[in-house]
Design goal:
The complex is a heterodimer of chains A (641) and B (205). Chain A has 641 residues and is of the alpha/beta class. In chain A, helix 7 links the parallel strand 6 (140-141) and strand 7. Chain A has 22 helices and 22 strands. Chain A has 4 domains: 4-229, Thiamin diphosphate (ThDP)-binding fold, Pyr/PP domains (Rossmann fold); 236-348, Rossmann fold; 380-551, Rossmann fold; 559-638, Alpha-Beta Plaits (2-Layer Sandwich), CATH 3.30.70. Chain B has one domain: Pyruvate-ferredoxin Oxidoreductase, domain 3 (3-Layer(aba) Sandwich), CATH 3.40.920. In chain B, helix 2 (77-83) links the parallel strand 4 and strand 5. The chains are: A alpha/beta (641), B alpha/beta (205). At the A-B interface, strand 1, strand 8, helix 11, helix 14 and strand 20 of A face helix 1, strand 2, helix 2, strand 5 and helix 3 of B.
Chain lengths: 641, 205
């Protein structure tokens, strides 16, 4: 099995859009790649990590997107090609340096990959990061499918070097997370020289006002050159020229437009402009097509970024052509072949039925229940949430408000936990807690994951002590960045490539800031309840307390148990002892605990149970027991990083 | 453009749906075809309802339209009922004979689900892929391979498009060692079972 990332030139391999970007970056000779994990961007760096040592590329999971950007940018100003990748909201975190990097520019190709998430499959908003191009005056390149992503990544490095500025490569979920066969057109460079040179140039690298003013004019010139000179392949393509009806499709929208025209047998009924550089939109080719057009439809996902520029061109040139876009194409959520098909059909005035006809929704006497994501069986967060709620009652902590953060534990907003009352952005749990503590009399508990704590939790933790904001910090340390697929972070003592490094413990940081820290092992439920109760009492007496709950992600434990052939305990409900009180079901909401239709007692799905033991410790009748022979010492798997 | 063959792969996050989608994608490559496999990662994957869109044909866009699926493979019955609307009239549904209810939910019984699925104009196959996997591997972890083998047996069109050997070659790219051998054998057995069931059904018509 050859890793497809290293397959030979000419091979046809099935690559995820993200893997295609990684392969193209390797072919382009990058020396440095950095990222903070975030769906849908994560696999770009993961793919590079797998082959980094072989290729001589330096790769790291940075603590956050701003730092990742700076790491890659630092290499680029020293003349090494580099890449930084993040999800759309990650670019908000890195936006400060993004803006400055546009002014100062680069000495080697530098790609900023932003993976946007229309429809918010795994995100708190669906911001359209093409705006960042207009904001920073940097070009945005947008592929229409994974194959395009592969070619355009390589082209983007050339563009970046031609104009000596960073290039933003914008993908969306359906590009990043779609696999397609890709014919590899280049080799992964081996024996790359990754020693750069930093050339002192105060007027360029030191953006004091006088220098910044000069650099701004340089940037404006570059911006205009790109707009005027990059008016051809691979950034823009005109298909079937000469028609009075024109469809302009940017990025993934082109895939849908192409298929819709095929289905409508209307390939020759419209001129199509395939846009792969929506910002700045190349003016000359658009002008040429608009001149003889009667009506234009702009198809793009989310905001009318291209539509606005097309209208600007038409207005400036005095064309009377009618330009349509968001009146026919949805403004919100990701596009689909259905939505684009209907829009194109209406635009071209074609009659007829749609080629799809659903057999309809199936109805059952009890409706099919929704299935939102849930905490996994054995998830440490479930234990911690149970412990914290029980301890709050014991300590008489009245109506606490739990501010929440970004991670699997966000799912704690659901019943029966309700231990997340807010969720906005990385680190927001602690920051917003600072403000709530000023505004309300309820105790405020900031709930934050380990990786998120390192990402953006430190400044607001310091702020709380410095400004005397009376809050409790609860760090959920599952020894990994779980939701994005288990990346290491500073608290694990392991680097991106699996090397041992300094382990930085959240409790040490919090102690040094001035918190009294309680570290608990939530598998020891009773002990933990005692410890957290004591922490809450201390908080009530005016103390600054923090709790670190440490227990490894259950998915990691299950994987390691399989690998090392360790048998974990499996619990079962003892029919004779069970009274059917349902305490276990109602207090844990564990996916392994099910109650079949008509049944009076719950059952544990032995395939799913990995033996966290929470249900057994809750059962008032001791009716849940271990029913297998676990390997002695299995507990270590839950603790060691 | 040739018509695109649309396969929805559905179930609960964690049931091996991404692997199943990838295997079909790799088999398509071996068959010299173009394909798009649109996956779901991240939060929506944690025990949530998942659909992987597999579209075999020339330069497909990523998503299957509702009413456009030729084949729906489901690893779970509630999810089969949820996503069956993706099928076209006369499409094939192969569902694992397994219910995994969401926590704290009220849900219909197996018989109720099967009855309502049968009321639709589809070709319905219910196959205990969990059992097939357990019998052969000792756990349900290969239920995705079992249901793929069975589906290759009952869906003649899919068999024509991909070919059994191409799927076997795809397995070789995804698994290795003992796991590969076990999965190859499981694929073969469940395929034979599928062929048998399909023949019986044709005979009874």
């Amino acid at each position: 099995m050859v890793n497809p990332l290293l397959a030979e030139k000419g091979s046809r391999v099935l690559l995820l859009g993200n893997e295609a970007i990684a392969r193209a970056a390797l072919e382009s000779g990058i020396c440095v790649a950095a990222a903070y994990p975030g769906t849908p961007s994560t696999e770009i760096l993961e793919a590079i990590i797998e082959v980094a040592e072989q290729c001589g590329v330096y790769v790291e999971w940075s603590v956050n997107e701003k730092t990742a950007f700076e790491v890659a940018y630092g290499a680029a100003i020293a003349g090494l090609r580099s890449l930084v990748a993040m999800k759309h909201v990650g670019l908000n975190v890195a936006s400060d340096i993004l803006m400055s990097s546009a002014y100062a520019g680069v000495e080697a190709g530098f790609l900023v990959v932003t993976a946007d998430d229309p429809s918010m499959h795994s995100s708190q908003n669906e911001q359209d990061n093409r705006w960042y191009g207009l904001l920073s005056h940097l070009p945005v390149v947008e592929p229409s499918n994974p194959r395009d992503a592969y070619e355009l990544t390589k082209e983007s490095y050339a563009l970046s070097e031609k104009y000596k500025i960073p290039v933003i490569l914008r993908t969306t979920t359906r590009i990043s997370h779609t696999r397609m066969p890709i014919v590899l057109s280049g080799e992964v460079a081996s024996g790359r020289n990754c020693r750069g040179v930093f050339r002192q140039d105060l007027s360029r690298w030191v953006l004091v006002p006088g220098n910044a003013r000069r650099r701004k004019l340089e940037l404006a010139k570059t911006w205009t050159s790109i707009m005027e000179k990059e008016g051809g392949e691979p950034f823009i393509r005109i298909i079937n020229p000469g028609s009075s009806k024109v469809i302009i499709a940017s990025g993934i929208a082109f895939s849908y437009v192409r298929e819709a025209l095929d289905l409508l047998n209307a390939v020759d009924k419209a001129t199509v402009i395939k846009v792969n550089m929506p910002v700045p939109l190349p003016r000359a080719p658009v002008k040429r097509v608009l001149e003889s057009a009667s009506e234009v439809l702009v198809v793009e996902e989310l905001d009318p970024v291209v539509e606005m520029q097309v209208k600007d061109i038409a207005q400036t040139e005095g064309y009377s052509v009618r330009i349509r876009g968001k009146d026919l194409i949805p403004l919100n959520y990701e596009l689909s072949i259905e939505s684009v098909y209907s829009a194109v059909k209406e635009f071209l005035g074609i009659e007829g039925k749609t080629p799809w006809e659903s057999i309809g929704v199936v109805e059952t006497p009890t409706p099919i229940p929704p299935r939102p994501p849930v905490l996994c069986a054995g998830c440490p967060h479930r234990l911690t949430f149970y412990i914290v709620k029980t301890a709050a009652n014991k300590a008489g902590l009245k109506n606490p408000v739990y501010t929440g953060d970004i991670g699997c534990y966000t799912l704690g907003y659901q019943k029966p936990f309700e231990t997340q009352s807010t969720c906005f952005e990385m680190g927001g749990s602690i920051g917003v807690a600072n403000g709530l503590a000023r505004a309300i009399d309820n105790p405020v508990i900031a709930v934050i994951g380990d990786s998120t704590f390192f990402h953006a939790g430190l400044p607001p933790s310091i702020n709380a002590v410095y400004n005397n904001s009376h809050i409790i910090i609860l760090v959920l340390d599952n020894l990994t960045t779980a939701m994005t697929g288990h990346q290491p972070h500073p608290g694990t003592g392991v680097s991106a490539t699996g090397k041992k490094t300094t382990r930085i413990l959240p409790e040490k940081i919090l102690e040094s800031i001035g918190y009294r820290v309680y570290v608990i092992n939530p598998m020891k439920t009773k002990e933990s309840i005692e410890a957290v109760t004591e922490a809450f009492r201390e908080y009530k007496n005016g103390g600054m307390v923090a709790i670190v709950s440490r227990m490894k992600c259950a998915l990691e434990v299950a994987r390691e148990a399989r690998r090392s052939r360790v048998t974990l305990p499996i619990y079962a409900v003892i029919e004779d002892k069970c009274t059917g009180c349902m305490a276990c079901v109602n207090l844990t909401a564990c996916p392994a605990l099910i109650v079949e239709p008509g049944a009076k007692k719950p059952r544990i799905m032995s395939d799913l149970c990995i033996g966290c033991g929470l249900c057994a410790s809750i059962c008032p009748y001791r009716a849940i027991n271990v029913v297998n022979n676990p390997t002695p010492g299995y507990e270590k798997l839950w603790w060691e990083p | 453009m040739n018509r695109i063959y649309n396969i929805g792969v559905v179930g609960v996050g964690g049931q091996g749906l991404l692997t199943l989608g990838r295997i079909i994608g790799l088999a398509a490559i071996h068959a010299g075809l173009d394909v798009a496999v649109a996956e779901v990662h991240g939060m929506s994957q944690r025990g949530g309802s998942v659909i992987v869109n597999v579209r075999i044909g020339e330069e497909p866009s990523p998503l299957i339209p509702v009413g456009g699926a030729d084949l729906l493979i489901s690893l779970e019955l509630l999810e089969a009922a949820r996503y069956v609307q993706y099928l076209r009239r006369g499409g094939i549904l192969v569902s694992n004979d397994f219910i995994w209810p969401p926590p704290l939910a009220r849900y219909p019984s197996r018989d109720e689900i099967v009855k309502s699925l049968k009321s639709r104009e589809i070709d319905l196959y219910i196959y205990d892929a969990n059992k097939a996997s357990v019998e052969f591997t000792g756990s349900t972890v290969s239920a995705n391979i079992a249901i793929l083998g069975f589906t290759m047996g009952v869906d003649e069109k899919l068999g024509e498009i991909l070919g059994f050997e191409k799927v076997t070659s795809a397995l070789e790219e995804v698994f290795k060692g003992q796991v590969l051998e076990v999965n190859k054998e499981l694929l073969r057995r469940s395929y034979i079972e599928g062929v048998k069931i399909a023949e019986e059904r044709r005979g009874s018509r």
